[in-house]
Amino acid sequence: xxxSTRLTxxxxxxxxxxxxxETYFENGWSDGLPVVPPTPEAVSAMLEGAKxxxxxxxxxxxxxxxxxxxxxxxxxAVMAGCKPEYMPVVVAAVEAIMQPEFNLHGITVSTMGAxxxxxxxxxxxxxxxxxxxxxxxxxxxxxxxTIGRAxxxxxxxxxxxxxxxxxxKATLGHPGKYTWCVAENEAVLPWEPLHExxxxxxxxxxxxxxxxxxxxxFGEHEASTPEGILDAFAQRLYPxxxxxxxxxxxxxxxxxxxxxxxxxxxxxxxxxxYENARKPASEWIAMGLxxxxxxxxxAKLDPDNGDELISVLDSPESAxxxxxxxxxxxxxxxxxxxxxxxxxxxxxRIIDSKE
Length: 355
Prior knowledge:
By secondary structure, the protein is α+β, with helices and mostly antiparallel strands. The chain has a domain at 214-336. It is 32% helix and 16% strand. It is built from 12 helices and 14 strands. Helix 9 packs across helix 11 (266-276). The longest helix is centred in the middle third of the chain and has 18 residues, at 142-159.
């Protein structure tokens, strides 16, 4: 950004920070928590962090046509409490959620209550200290908390989908709607990191966006083989019904160590679950889950063919394993995407630090 560049957003003259915070509350520009007043100096520094001009377009929301400029994104990043060096992650995340296949509008207006989850990979995770270890999904780390919050505020204030205007239709919602950002724990991976699996070159940094429903955490303290651990995952997948198209498997380091010891490759995870996490069609029907559930190119489950074994996964590629968390506890989790991946696809984008 050059010194001659000017910000174009409306400005407010207020006596001080407290008055600014209250004004943002009163106008519905907050997520329910106090925001950092976005002064011109702070917004300019945020733009400089990504080497972007204020009028640079980061994306256009496909349904409502809302244009996300770098200036609007920077304002909300300041409000969220980001440092300027976090801005490249925010930019990449915004570019990702604007992709049609992510279906941001559908996610937001659905009663299902999904939140935008960010998974960050690559060197930038250490550079800006995104937590991938102990309590990675919990509080206490500024980069995790503020990057995820910035994306949420952008969706609320720029795209215009929040509970105040009636467009957020979530029946329950969940805390991830405030902020949801983690890094993959690449130091203990048994295989290549998520962004490399999704086509990003080694050594690059990237963010993957997921329309995540509430996660299901579980303990598996007895199994010491990949098969035994994945059988425990399968028990948490069955309630979703057959034909799940995408699901995040959060493997903790203690569980990941057993995959390393066994020499497993990442693709074996989905292959095992696809082939072994199966139930007869009659059992799916008895569970009451197949109503609306689809399999095999939209052919509905046939109650007259009750012995046919149907996998909980649509394909081996439907399982997306990531390794997150601290050592010393055999606690993993399942995070299903909105619509179980049938109407919202996971998207990955390179983070351009423009050094």
